[in-house]
Amino acid sequence: MSPILVLDDVSVRLPAGGDRSHAMANVSLSLAANEILCVVGESGSGKSMTANAIMRLLPGGVAIDGGRILFEGRDLCRLGEAQMREVRGAGIAMIFQEPMTALNPLRTIGDQIGEMFELHTDLPAAEIAARTLALLEEVRIPDPALAFRAYPHELSGGQRQRAMIAMALALDPKVLIADEPTTALDVTTQAQILKLIRDLQRRKGTAVLFITHDFGVVAEIADRVAVMREGRVVEAGATAAVLGEPRHAYTRQLIAAVPPLEAPPPRQLSGEPILALAHVSKTYRTGGFLGRGKRVTHAVRDVSLVLPRGATLGIVGESGSGKSTLARCLVRLIDPESGEIRLNGVDLAGLSREEMRAATRRIQMVFQDPFASLNPRRKAGEAVAQGLVVHGMARPQALARARELFGLVGLDPAATERYPHEFSGGQRQRIGLARALALEPEVLVADEPVSALDVSVQAQVLKLLAELRERLGLSIVFITHDLRVAAQVCDLVAVMQRGEVVEAGPIGAVFGAPQHPYTRELLASIPGREIGAGRRFAEEPTA
Amino acid sequence: MRVLTLAGRRLAASIPTLILILVGVFLLLQLAPGDTVDALMAQMGGGDAATARQLREFYGLDLSVWAQLGNYLWRLVRLDLGFSAIYGKPVATVIAERLPATILLMTASLSFAFFFGLLLGVVAARGVNKWPDTLISTLGLMFYAMPTFWFGLMAIVVFSIYLQWLPAGGFEDITVSYTGLRRTLDIALHLILPTLTLGLFYMAIYLRIMRGSMLEVLNLDFVRTARSKGMDETRVVVRHVLRNALLPMVTLIGLQAGTMLGGSVVVESVFSLPGLGRLAYESVIQRDLNTLLGIIFVSALLVIAVNFIVDLLYARLDPRITAGS
Lengths: 543, 325
Description:
The structure holds two protein chains of two kinds.
Chain A: E1 3-13, E2 22-32, E3 36-40, H1 47-55, E4 63-71, E5 74-75, H2 81-87, E6 92-95, H3 109-120, H4 125-138, H5 144-149, H6 157-168, E7 175-179, H7 187-204, E8 207-212, H8 215-221, E9 224-229, E10 232-238, H9 239-244, H10 249-257, E11 273-286, E12 295-308, E13 312-316, H11 323-330, E14 338-343, E15 346-347, H12 353-359, E16 363-366, H13 380-390, H14 395-408, H15 425-437, E17 443-447, H16 455-472, E18 475-480, H17 483-489, E19 492-497, E20 500-506, H18 507-512, H19 517-525
Helix pairs in contact in A: 3-4, 3-6, 4-6, 6-7, 7-19, 13-14, 13-15, 14-15, 15-16
Chain B: H1 2-30, H2 36-44, H3 49-59, H4 65-77, E1 83-84, E2 89-90, H5 91-126, H6 131-145, H7 148-162, H8 180-218, H9 221-228, H10 233-270, H11 276-285, H12 289-317
Antiparallel strand pairs in B: 1-2
Helix pairs in contact in B: 1-12, 5-6, 5-8, 5-10, 5-12, 6-8, 7-8, 7-10, 8-10, 9-10, 10-11, 10-12, 11-12
């Protein structure tokens, strides 16, 4: 079959002064009708830039400076702006990563989908409304008539992404570009959206350029794969070939960094509990002015768990399951309203503010977003030393200790003098770890510590965490939505849904033979389950 | 329904604000030396202590501060603003005579500032860092930095004295008594310079806000979505960016309604307009407590009304605002 979209030796130039001169360098790709081509790579690999270059929607200062982009035989690089607008939406449509921000918050879903018809056809308003409604039915949004009149904030993430897909497919485009369309979604929703894209693509014969960082998604959906690194395609081919026998070292390294879903053999756990939760509950109440519009959310409901000394307890669940609220309750950033949290026998929930501040020495937290959780105006070393100073250490000693801690987490001790923006994401998460370890806690509560990181960086941070656990005798509560990660680092796991723990136990048992239907659904939703099967994690070949 | 609930709640919340303002101002004014009677006696060319005592008794000024405050609030409940000893008329009448000029000036300036601020902000954002942006931003900075009274005086010098295009002051031509359309036109002609003087300052603020929020919204994801649909830039701006970018500006208008009322004191003085601002100034000089409190009451009502409208507008513009949150 002849390709419908061809990128022939395309280069995209970045503004001068960046860390590299080209966002894309001599990229050649081709996409045929009725085929899904996955472009995969880590952040900064130029995969999103590829999508923007095809649509000719490049940010200011960035320009295509070589090659041809052939769509149905026409070179998009040479089209005038008006002709290009006719291609956008009608010929090549696009869906984006974050369905919340990709829709205009002030206009209804129906209005925004209908706009596609208004722009490219002369249909009367009634016909547009009817077609929009039909599209919403086609993407199987629950209650299409209601969704038609809804504003984006009134829909869930999955529904918004369905609306986005409806919008992109409105005019039966020849090519659909999907830029990380499921990255912001929960795993069960992701599975549904992937299936929807696959079904629609099969039925309409659309060519799909699917951009992702997730090899699981690739295995699930792609016909062919192109692996990108630093603006270049390093390897391309049929999915089975690339995933099964990767030829390029970088591809091998990336695939090896994907944690397999099977847990490693269980470790011997100590019988002595260090942290024990009994019947912890937290309820949020909103509204309630004169008793109207009151909403009660049971964020955490009657959770009882035990963390043995030296073990890692994973808490997994989707967004809204209450796992982060529980983590914050553990360190009393949020006060639980009932239940006990016993750390070495002392009930943290019953401590006064003053006593809790002293107790924070023994239980520390690592946060998800390494970008947002460090103060940008403070040097990295100060961020680490701050806790020590608060707990009464003199400043020079605290800074000296910060340098030691930097060494411990694998950073250059001299880097304490630098500001957070001078570090990469993985390095920042190391700073976050150093900060948490500064007070020599016995328990570390890690809330999604690797979710914002690329797979290869994620693998390094997980390895560091495992090393530190051994060396410092830490006990860890590890909150994650990623079951693959949980399988690799946790000894025990608790699955949360709507504030409740539905299943808990040793990780091998829970993942190997799930008892609760929700656990089974979660495990079944993980894309590309076969990836990494039968392989031991974090023993990647060096590039 | 959603908007109505919001409206009702906002109105209920403004009543305590109003009472706090009035009590606060009443007590503050007690700290100023002298009272109405002193001012009256000075006007009459002096008098003996007995007359002063009689007058104080007559106006209820011999009571304790708290009793006076109680009396005043009780009168307010009955919608009675009291009697102005200086003007010899009920305060409500005095204010009613002066209110139209101020409301007209404020509405005109606000509309002018809003409309041109929006327009210039959009133009500047569309051509960011190119010559239209540079020109507009420089002009904006100039208007922002220039003191209002000085701008007013210069406008009079240029347009009234030198060019003789526009009248130098007053609300209307009192030498001829026009009626109907001719009178409207005459008033409009008199208001051009005051409106520009007061409005240009706010226009400068609005255009900067508008430019900033346009640039911010232009970088949001849904604008990229709109472009990827094949929409041209003008349509993207009109249909997706404008309404989102308007939100911060609308908030600002509510916040600045009070400031604008304050600014009108200066402008009314420069252009000798018979408005509330000048009345307030005169009442302070003459220790006319009743009139001053009346003005503050009416001004507070005006600001509350503007904020109320702004809240409704905001709820209309942004569906995410609900009565619940």
